[in-house]
Write a structure and sequence with these properties.
This protein has 262 residues and is an alpha/beta fold. It contains 10 helices and 8 strands. The chain has helices at residues 16-19, 28-43, 55-62, 72-96, 108-112, 114-129, 152-162, 199-204, 217-229, 244-249; strands at residues 9-14, 47-52, 101-106, 133-138, 167-172, 193-194, 233-238, 256-258. Helix 7 (152-162) runs parallel beside helix 9. Bound molecules: glutamic acid (GLU).
Amino acid sequence: MNTVKDAKRIVIKVGTSTLTHSTGKTNIRRMEKLTSVISDLQNSGHETVLVSSGAIGVGAGKLGMKTKPKETADKQAAATVGQCELMFMYDKFFSEYGQVVGQVLLTRSDIEDPERRVNLMNNFEKLFNYGVIPIINENDCVAVDEIVYGDNDSLSAIVAKMVSADLLIILTDIDGLFTANPKEDETAHIVPVVHELTDEIMALAGPSGTKLGTGGMVTKLQAAKIAGDAGIDTVIMNGADPTDLYKLLDGRQIGTVIKASK
Ligand code: GLU
């Protein structure tokens, strides 16, 4: 089976850089395209879960913060305001395309507590039965240091595992995993398929994840490892043109596919 082409239940993770302009305001054109493509995928029989960042970025813009907040309390205030704006936009756009969305805000303890985990899994199944698109983010207004996932890449992989997704797609601001930093090395090219997340492959992401730009490749590969260990393939691709999702699911080579380890 071609796991990308045949995937039915798909978790799509979208990062702040895809959803916002450098001003911190929402990238309306991008959001409109993304929601239209996901709606169409949903109409064609896919079950989609959207893991969306952007709460802190959008909230910071809305609160007039000049730079991205560093203090936890400021991050929480920004996230509280931004999450509301994000969901308003998603609800508006998805409604225009005839879709119903639901907000799921999670913390590590929700997922690790066996009882809450089961409640969550039951809720997801019910949402799928009703054809709802769950939109997930970390519950940043309560998630402080010790309970924080911090990056939605890991969260998206954990969600993919929890809903037994067929595929995890991570949309970012770089085309995929490169053999070297494309900004510094013109021979750098995309690795189309990764069969095993060896130390050599992990090293391509660079030590801090900044080597290949703002995409934070390290956390994406770590997410692919979590998904892969659960038998789920991951695709890392550019979210600049959401219609690329059609090409990907039609079986075209887009981004980097990281094959599951089992
Ligand atoms: N939960 C954070 C937000 O919505 C994003 C975390 C991340 O960038 O992965 O702003």
